[in-house]
C-alpha cells in the first residue's frame, strides 16, 4: 500500500518538476544511483518538447512529433547513445539515419543545396556550389571545423578550459563572437553565408547574435550523422520513463507543481495537486526544476527567495524565437514518388538578418524559413505515424514572441482564453495557407491530398509546456547568453537545481539530455558525465522489464 493510499505524508530523495528529456534524464540517473526520485508533470503525457500526439480520422491514425524531427549524436559514440547506454537503454532505442547524401535540402531563390554527412563532403559540395569563393569558404570552414572539434572534445571531457586556453586560444577568442564577423573577415558572400546558416532554425537566433561556437556546433552535430528514432519521437521519453520506474522512481502526469517550497534558505519539497483538488505537500531535500527558467524563479520559487541581482539577471534574459507548426495527414505516399528522406528548408531571401528584424518588430515575415519534414519517410514501418500509403508531414516557421500577432492579450498560463476566438483562428488560418503555398514549391499537388490538418501557435506551446513566449528552445543561445553565461545547474538556494534547454548545455535533444546527466552529477557530487562518456552503465539492465513486441512509448509515458 502506497503513502498516497494510507494518507501519510509523502517524501522522496529528490523531486523533478517537469518531464522534458532533461528532467527525465536527471531522474533516471538519480534513480540508477539509488536516489528515489519523483517526476511531476502537469500534462497528461511525459516528454516535454519530445512528446507526440495522436489523431484519428475516419478510422485512420496519425502520430505527430512536437519536437523530435531529426537529431545528431546517435552514432555508436554519440552523446545520446551514451546517455541511453548509461541507463542500460542503448539496445532499446534504435536510430535510423536520414539520407546521407542530403539529410537536409536548403532552398534559396536561385540556389538549392543538399547537405551531406561529413565535413569533407560538405566542403567539396560548397566549393562546387560557389566556385568563385573557395578561399573564403575554406577560411570560414577551417575556423568552424576547428572550433567544433574543440567544443566536441570539451563536451566529452577530453579537454579542460585551462588546456584549451593553452592549446587552442582561438576557441576562447572566436567561439563567442558573432558568426557574421567570421564571415565578413573572410569576405564570404551573402549567398554562401545564408547556405552555411540554412539550418539555423534549429536554434533560432539572428545571425549577428549567433556565436561561432553555436553555428559551428550545429553544423558538426549533423555532419556526424542525422537520425530519427525508430518508433517515433516519443520512444526516448518512453524508455526513460521505463527506466525511472524500474529503478525505483515514479513519474506522475497530470500533476502540476504550484510551488517549490523554500524554508530557511533551502528547498524542502513542492506543493502539487490537480485542478479542483486540495493542494498537497511532498517533501524532498532536493528539487530539480526542468520547468521554464523564468517561471521557475518568479512563480515556482518566488522573487523573495532570490538575491535581487539574480532576479534582475533572469528578468533580462531573452527567450528564443518561437515556432508555428502545421500538422498534415496526406492520403498519398510521397516516398513512393521518389522523394528522398530529407528535410527541406525554404528561405525567401538570403538576408536572414532581415527576417529577425521583422520578427523582433512583432511582425510575421514572408521570408522566414519554411521547414518541411515527413516523419513517415524517416520511420516508414511505423503504423502509428501514418497509415500505409499515407504521409505524415509537418511544416514549421519562425514567428514573433509577442502574442498580439495572434490577437491574444494574455497567455494561457495567465488565464487567457484564445482557442475559439475568431481573430485568433483567422490569424492561424492565414499563416497555414501561406505555408501551404510555399510548400507547394516542393509538393505541387499538396492541397489535393490533405485529409488531416491542424496547426499550433506559440500560444499552444505555452498552454502545454508553460514556456515563456511559447518558445521551444528556452533562453536564446546568443553571444551574451551562451555556455557559461547561462544559469545552472546549481542555484544559490541549497537543494535547488536546474536542468533543461536554458542551462549551459543548451537546447536540442542532445543538449537537454546532457543537462540531465550533469545536473544528476551535481546532486550526487559525482562526475557522472565522465563515467557516461567512458561507456559505464550505471543502471541495472536486469531490473528493466522484458522487451515486448508492440510496446507503446506513448502509453508508457502516461
Describe, in plain words, how this protein is organized in 3D.
The chain has 558 residues and is α/β, with parallel strands linked by helices. The protein folds into three domains: 3-51 and 72-87 and 232-317 and 476-556, 3-Layer(bba) Sandwich (FAD/NAD(P)-binding domain); 117-223, no CATH class; 321-469, no CATH class. The chain has helices spanning 3-6, 21-32, 79-85, 119-129, 134-155, 161-167, 169-174, 179-185, 190-196, 212-223, 234-246, 293-302, 308-316, 352-360, 375-378, 422-439, 458-465, 509-524, 528-533, 553-556; strands at 14-17, 37-40, 52-57, 60-65, 95-97, 104-108, 111-115, 227-229, 250-252, 257-263, 266-272, 280-283, 287-289, 323-330, 343-346, 370-374, 391-398, 450-456, 496-498. β10 (257-263) and β11 (266-272) form a beta hairpin. α2 runs parallel beside α18. The longest helix is centred in the N-terminal third of the chain and has 22 residues, at 134-155.
Summary of the model, kept short:
The protein has 558 residues and is of the alpha/beta class.
Count the DSSP helices: 20
- Main sheet summary: 7 strands, mixed
Helix content: 25-40%
- Helix-and-strand structural type: alpha/beta
* Rg computed from alpha carbons, rounded to a whole number of angstroms: 23 Å
Shape by Cα distribution = globular
The CATH topology assignment of the largest domain is FAD/NAD(P)-binding domain
Name the poorly predicted regions.
1-6
N-end to C-end Cα span: 21 Å
CATH class of the largest domain: Alpha Beta
Amino acid at each position: 500500500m502506497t503513502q498516497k493510499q494510507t494518507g501519510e505524508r509523502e517524501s522522496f530523495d529528490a523531486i523533478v518538476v517537469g518531464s522534458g528529456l532533461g528532467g527525465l534524464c536527471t531522474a533516471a540517473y538519480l534513480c540508477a544511483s539509488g536516489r528515489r526520485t519523483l517526476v511531476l508533470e502537469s500534462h497528461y503525457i511525459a516528454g516535454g518538447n519530445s512528446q507526440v500526439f495522436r489523431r484519428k480520422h475516419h478510422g485512420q491514425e496519425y502520430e505527430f512529433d512536437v519536437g523530435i524531427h531529426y537529431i545528431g549524436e546517435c552514432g555508436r559514440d554519440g552523446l545520446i547513445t551514451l546517455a541511453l547506454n548509461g541507463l542500460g537503454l542503448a539496445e532499446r532505442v534504435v536510430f535510423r539515419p536520414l539520407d546521407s547524401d542530403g539529410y537536409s535540402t536548403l532552398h534559396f531563390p536561385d540556389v538549392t543545396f543538399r547537405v551531406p554527412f561529413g565535413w569533407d563532403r560538405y566542403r567539396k559540395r560548397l566549393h562546387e556550389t560557389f566556385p568563385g569563393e573557395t578561399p573564403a569558404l575554406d577560411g570560414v570552414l577551417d575556423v568552424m571545423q576547428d572550433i567544433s572539434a574543440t567544443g566536441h572534445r570539451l563536451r566529452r571531457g577530453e579537454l579542460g578550459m585551462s588546456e584549451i586556453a593553452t592549446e587552442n586560444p582561438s576557441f576562447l577568442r572566436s567561439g563567442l563572437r558573432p558568426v557574421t564577423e567570421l564571415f565578413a573577415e573572410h569576405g564570404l558572400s551573402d549567398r554562401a553565408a545564408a547556405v552555411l546558416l540554412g539550418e539555423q532554425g534549429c536554434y533560432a537566433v539572428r545571425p549577428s547574435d549567433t556565436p561561432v561556437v553555436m553555428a559551428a556546433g550545429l553544423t558538426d552535430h549533423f555532419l556526424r550523422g542525422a537520425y530519427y528514432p525508430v518508433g517515433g519521437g516519443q520512444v526516448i521519453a518512453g524508455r526513460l520513463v521505463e527506466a525511472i520506474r524500474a529503478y525505483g522512481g515514479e513519474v506522475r502526469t497530470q500533476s502540476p507543481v504550484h510551488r517549490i517550497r523554500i524554508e530557511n534558505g533551502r528547498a524542502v519539497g513542492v506543493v502539487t495537486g490537480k485542478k479542483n483538488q486540495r493542494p498537497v505537500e511532498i517533501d524532498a531535500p532536493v528539487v530539480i526544476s526542468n520547468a521554464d527558467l523564468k517561471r521557475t524563479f518568479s512563480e515556482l520559487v518566488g522573487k523573495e527567495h532570490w538575491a535581487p541581482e539574480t532576479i534582475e539577471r533572469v528578468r533580462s534574459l531573452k527567450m528564443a524565437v518561437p515556432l508555428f507548426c502545421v500538422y498534415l495527414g496526406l492520403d498519398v505516399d510521397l516516398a513512393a514518388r521518389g522523394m528522398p528522406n530529407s528535410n527541406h528548408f525554404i528561405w525567401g531571401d538570403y538576408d536572414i538578418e532581415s527576417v529577425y528584424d521583422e520578427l523582433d518588430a512583432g511582425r510575421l515575415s514572408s521570408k522566414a524559413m519554411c521547414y518541411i519534414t515527413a516523419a513517415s519517410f524517416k520511420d516508414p514501418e511505423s503504423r502509428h505515424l501514418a497509415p500505409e500509403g499515407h504521409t505524415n508531414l509537418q511544416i514549421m516557421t519562425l514567428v514573433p514572441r509577442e502574442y498580439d500577432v495572434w490577437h491574444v492579450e494574455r497567455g494561457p498560463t495567465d488565464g487567457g482564453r484564445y482557442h475559439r476566438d475568431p481573430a485568433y483562428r483567422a490569424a492561424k488560418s492565414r499563416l497555414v495557407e501561406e505555408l501551404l503555398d510555399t510548400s507547394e514549391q516542393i509538393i505541387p499537388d499538396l492541397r489535393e491530398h490533405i485529409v488531416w490538418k491542424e496547426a499550433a501557435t506559440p500560444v499552444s506551446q505555452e498552454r502545454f509546456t508553460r514556456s515563456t513566449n511559447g518558445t521551444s528552445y528556452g533562453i536564446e543561445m546568443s553571444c551574451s547568453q551562451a555556455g557559461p553565461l547561462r544559469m545552472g545547474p546549481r542555484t544559490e538556494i541549497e537543494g535547488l537545481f536546474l536542468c533543461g534547454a536554458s542551462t549551459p548545455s543548451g537546447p536540442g535533444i542532445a543538449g537537454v539530455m546532457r543537462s540531465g546527466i550533469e545536473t544528476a552529477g551535481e546532486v550526487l557530487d559525482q562526475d557522472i558525465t565522465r563515467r557516461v562518456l567512458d561507456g559505464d552503465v550505471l543502471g541495472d539492465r536486469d531490473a528493466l522489464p522484458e522487451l515486448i513486441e508492440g510496446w507503446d512509448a506513448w502509453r508508457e509515458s502516461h
